[in-house]
Each structure stands twice: as structure tokens, then as C-alpha cells.
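Help needed: design a sequence for this.
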């Protein structure tokens, strides 16, 4: 076995030197190609800083975008062609360092490239050189999934968690909170699941088997642990913000908030176990692991009770447009049942304007009775200076209810008094429940008793 390993090391060194010689002769970007090959060689040590600095300088904002694109293609080609776990892992480390410490220009070019070419999906990667290399290959695949999820989280958040720390008022700049503490409900429900998915991939980076004691694996794991601190802080600040806004959410948002809160409690326990497994590693000498506390699970029952009575989302303009819409649908129906109101409306004001203190029998018999009943020109009779009581009742019966002609007007008036119209029902149904005192008291109690337990 030792002879085979020695042969593999010699073969890897020969391939590296050959690749460097070809880059010096044939490449237009020979300095960058040489730096990439030497930073990702077959030697089982972390990439040297001097090679990383050359790669970072080649992807800075001062260089043309063509140089940045060439660097991305060179790293992708290096990762796609290799079947050695050392080269693959060191290439992922270089990409991770460029995302963390490099210029934002690299990330701006790398994001669209990974959407076209999934270079970080290494589900088929496997080093068959030895059984020990299988454990290393498994961790390389997991590490690649974490980096891909990191890019996906950036697409959702539109900012880098590593750089976004806001200072608290009245405290020093070292004290701060994440941007998730100040988000509105819609952005909060969109960003928290992305952060939780990223934390899920991070917790999955726990090394197993031979990879648990490998120094190169622990070097990459240290970069992952640095990411975990700020990811957890962003989730924790977001949960505090979520609890503060929960009792004002409609039902569909409250359901999402309950799932997010429940998953936050589960991930806090999983992250504590992940930290506990890393404490025994050599890299733990340079880290101070925080003490995590799970969010109070008793609050979930309170959230579920609120969901049962939470209001549903209704557009603000809907109650205002509803009566208008009912009137628009009502007027054509009225016009269909009374097709001849227009000429009668024109004749009626002329008959009213004539001063007649005592109407004669000829004046009463002159207008036909049926057209006078179907007069809907003025539903309330406001244009009549002295309307009779019977005319008002007959016109109201026709205006407020569409009924057969044989129905008595007195029965119609009684039915309209007992049966409210559609827009009145809509306004009553849209009125929210005013009994919100228990929920407000519950929220104040939860904020005082439990939220203080969260790690800030």
C-alpha cells in the first residue's frame, strides 16, 4: 500500500510539472494558469497563500471581465477533468476563498456561469484509488453541495451574509445584528427558508470515517465553520423578527411562519451536535464555539392556535368595489324588466309641475296604471316635490327587489327589511374579529418570557 501511494504521489507531481510547462509555453494567461495548477496540485496540503493572491488579483475589478471569465473556465476545467480527491478538494477551496475574500466581480461572473454549467454538482465524483479515498470523495461531494447552496442563497437574498452586519444603536461597531432583523414579513418568509436550507447543507458537511482526521479536510471544514456563525446569527435574528410580526400575519403567511419556527428549533439542536463533533478536531483550537439554545417549543402551540383564527388575505380594494359591482349587475336586470321607463320619466315631471291642489277624475285616469307602477327613474322619489305615499311604496318595491308582478307590495317591503342586500353581507363578512386582546396578551407574554432566550 505504501509503495502504491508513493507511486501515485510521483505520478501526480509529474502531471503537475507537465501542466505547468505547457501553460508557460502555450497559454496567453500563463501566470494565472500556473497559479491555478500550483494552488490545486496533487500535494496533500492546503493551497499556498501566494498562489491564492495571484488568483485573487487576476479576478479583481481592475482586470478585464474576459480575464475573470477565463479564470472561472480554468477552475471549472480543472474540476471537471480530475478524478483525484486532493485536486478536487483544493479546487473547491480556491473557489470558496474567492467567494469569501475575492472581489465581487468574481461572484458576479460566477453566478451566471454556474446556472449554465453545474460545475459544483459532483454527485458522480469518486476517487477509486483506495478505500480511504472513498471517504474523502464523499466529503468532497458534500462540500460541493454546500458551495452550490451558498450561491443559491445569494440569488435569493441579493446580498452577502459575510459583509452585511448592521451596528446596534448606542453600541460599538463590533456589536451588530443581521439584516433579517429589519425585514418585512414578505421578505422574511422568502429569505429565512433559503438561509435554513444553507444551514442544512452546512450541517451535512460533518466528516466521517478517514476524512474526520485528515488535515486538508479539516482546513476546508474550518472555512465552513466560519460561515456557520453568521448564518446562524442571521436565522436567529430573523426568528426574533418573525415572532414580533407573527400575530399580524394573515393565515397563509402564518402557516409558513410556523414551519420556519419549527425547523429553526430542529436545526439549533443539529448545529449544536455538529459543533460538539468538531470540538475534538485539531482545527477547534482556533475557534470559540457559541452555546446555542433552541427556540422555546411551547410557543408552537400558541402559534398554531393563532393560525386557526388568523384572518385570510383579502385585497383592500375588494370591499370598496363590491357594492359598485353589484350595482352594475343590478341595473341591466332592472332595465330588462322595465323596458319603457324613459318616456314615462319624461312625462311624470311635467304632470307634477302643473299646480293642481285637487286632482280631478280625468287627471287621475289619464295616465295608464301599469307604466306608472314601473317608473324607476327616481328610486327614492327625490325629484318629486310632493310624492304620494302609494307611489313611493310601489316604486321602492320595484327598485329593491325583483319579484313577479303578482306579489303584494306589503309583502315585498317586509321581505326587504328582513333580508339584507349582498353588499351589506359583504361588508359584515369583511369585518375582522375585534376580540384580539388574548392574542396581544399572549404575544407580550411570549416576548418577555421566551424570546430573550434566543442567542443574539
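Sure. Designed sequence:
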Amino acid at each position: 500500500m505504501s509503495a502504491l501511494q508513493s507511486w501515485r504521489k510521483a505520478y501526480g507531481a509529474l502531471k503537475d510539472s507537465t501542466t505547468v510547462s505547457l501553460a508557460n509555453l502555450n497559454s496567453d494567461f500563463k501566470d494565472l494558469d500556473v497559479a491555478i495548477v500550483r494552488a490545486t496540485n496533487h500535494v496533500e496540503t492546503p493551497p499556498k497563500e501566494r498562489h491564492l493572491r495571484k488568483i485573487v488579483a487576476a479576478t479583481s475589478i481592475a482586470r478585464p471581465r474576459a480575464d475573470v471569465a477565463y479564470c472561472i473556465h480554468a477552475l471549472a476545467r480543472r474540476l471537471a477533468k480530475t478524478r483525484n480527491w486532493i485536486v478536487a478538494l483544493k479546487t473547491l477551496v480556491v473557489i470558496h476563498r474567492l467567494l469569501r475574500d475575492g472581489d465581487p466581480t468574481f461572484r458576479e461572473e460566477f453566478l451566471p456561469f454556474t446556472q449554465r454549467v453545474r460545475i459544483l454538482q459532483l454527485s458522480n465524483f469518486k476517487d477509486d484509488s483506495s478505500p480511504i479515498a472513498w471517504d474523502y470523495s464523499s466529503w468532497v461531494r458534500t462540500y460541493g453541495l454546500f458551495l452550490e447552496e451558498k450561491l443559491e442563497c445569494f440569488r435569493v437574498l441579493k446580498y452577502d451574509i459575510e459583509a452585511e452586519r448592521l451596528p446596534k444603536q448606542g453600541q460599538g461597531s463590533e456589536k451588530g445584528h443581521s439584516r433579517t432583523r429589519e425585514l418585512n414579513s414578505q421578505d422574511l418568509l422568502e429569505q429565512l427558508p433559503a438561509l435554513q436550507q444553507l444551514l442544512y447543507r452546512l450541517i451535512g458537511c460533518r466528516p466521517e470515517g478517514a476524512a474526520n482526521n485528515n488535515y486538508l479536510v479539516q482546513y476546508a471544514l474550518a472555512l465552513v465553520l466560519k460561515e456557520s456563525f453568521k448564518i446562524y446569527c442571521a436565522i436567529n435574528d430573523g426568528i426574533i423578527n418573525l415572532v414580533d410580526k407573527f400575530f399580524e400575519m394573515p393565515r397563509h403567511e402564518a402557516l409558513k411562519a410556523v414551519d420556519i419556527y419549527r425547523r429553526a428549533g430542529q436545526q439549533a439542536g443539529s448545529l449544536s451536535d455538529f459543533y460538539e463533533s468538531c470540538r475534538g478536531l485539531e482545527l477547534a483550537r482556533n475557534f470559540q464555539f457559541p452555546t446555542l439554545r433552541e427556540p422555546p417549543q411551547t410557543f408552537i402551540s400558541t402559534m398554531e392556535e393563532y393560525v386557526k383564527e388568523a384572518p385570510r388575505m383579502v385585497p383592500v380594494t375588494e370591499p370598496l368595489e363590491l357594492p359598485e359591482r353589484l350595482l352594475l349587475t343590478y341595473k341591466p336586470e332592472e332595465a330588462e324588466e322595465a323596458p319603457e321607463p324613459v318616456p314615462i320619466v319624461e312625462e311624470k315631471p311635467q304632470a307634477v309641475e302643473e299646480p293642481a291642489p285637487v286632482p280631478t277624475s280625468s287627471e287621475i285616469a289619464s295616465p295608464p296604471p301599469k307604466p306608472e307602477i314601473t317608473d324607476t327613474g327616481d328610486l327614492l322619489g327625490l325629484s318629486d316635490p310632493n310624492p304620494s305615499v302609494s307611489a313611493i311604496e310601489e316604486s321602492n318595491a320595484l327598485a329593491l327587489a325583483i319579484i313577479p308582478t303578482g306579489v303584494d307590495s306589503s309583502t315585498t317591503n317586509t321581505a326587504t327589511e328582513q333580508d339584507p342586500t349582498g353588499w351589506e353581507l359583504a361588508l359584515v363578512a369583511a369585518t375582522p374579529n375585534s376580540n384580539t386582546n388574548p392574542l396581544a396578551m399572549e404575544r407580550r407574554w411570549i416576548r418577555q418570557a421566551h424570546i430573550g432566550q434566543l442567542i443574539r
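The first helix runs from residue 2 to 26.
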